[in-house]
Amino acid sequence: MPFDVIDLGFCDYKDALVQQELFHNKISQNEQKDTIIFVEHDHVYTLGKNANDDNILENYPKDVTIHNIDRGGDVTYHGPGQLVGYPIFNIKKQNISIGRYVHTLENILIETLEEFNISSKIRENLIGVWVGKEKIASIGVRVVNGITKHGFALNVNTDLSYFNGIIPCGIDNCKVTSMEQLLNIKFDFKDIQEVIIKKFNQYFK
């Protein structure tokens, strides 16, 4: 496999950021091959570097922590039941543009969902993956020295009520969904991770 896989399990958001930086530095110094970090977070809203603070609503649940971070995009939610992936990849070495990289992440998630009999798509001028008009996966990345940070969040068994405290991705009337809501099945993260890893292997040689 051309990359390593690290599963942090349930991990505090700040601790996961530290791990991202650690692996980013190692890959920058050619001390580590490309790595995907999988993680599940406690309730957190993250705001990208150009996010509008007003997209966190006054009635948001107070058990949520808030973090301003350096990825692209606006505000999103991470929490239990959501599978988050942080690919730390040297896309400069692979001659992949940022736009192509983001589109590749979208394709990987779309093809993963297909394996679980969920038909999804991209929407014009909107980043992420959608089932109809409901968003099932968010993508927000940053590239430093040709190496990626942050990544994607797939709603698996997620409590979607936490999205009511924000305007997701700054999109008015943005509705969200999850794999569990669509199929009425509780999913095992390991099954989904295996498919995502297989898809990454197909796109990144």
Describe this structure in words.
By secondary structure, the chain is α/β, with parallel strands linked by helices. It has one domain (4-203): 2-Layer Sandwich (BirA Bifunctional Protein, domain 2), CATH 3.30.930. It is 26% helix and 31% strand. It has four helices and eleven strands. Strands 1, 2, 6, 7, 8, 9, 10 and 11 form an eight-stranded mixed sheet that branches. Strands 4-3-5 form a three-stranded mixed sheet, with no helix packed on it. Helix 2 crosses helix 4 (189-203). The N and C termini lie close together (8 Å). The model has no long low-confidence stretch (mean pLDDT 95).
Features:
BirA Bifunctional Protein, domain 2
List the helices and strands and how they pair.
Blueprint: E1 4-10, H1 13-28, E2 35-40, E3 44-47, E4 65-68, E5 75-78, E6 82-88, H2 98-115, E7 121-123, E8 126-131, E9 134-144, E10 147-155, E11 175-176, H3 179-183, H4 189-203
Parallel strand pairs: 1-2, 3-4, 9-11
Antiparallel strand pairs: 2-6, 3-5, 6-10, 7-8, 8-9, 9-10
Helix pairs in contact: 2-4
The sequence of SSEs as H and E is EHEEEEEHEEEEEHH
CATH-defined architecture = 2-Layer Sandwich
Large-scale geometry: globular
| Total domain modules | 1
How much is the average pLDDT? 95
Give me the number of helical elements: 4
- SS elements, strand count: 11
Distance between the termini: 8 Å
CATH superfamily: Bira Bifunctional Protein, Domain 2
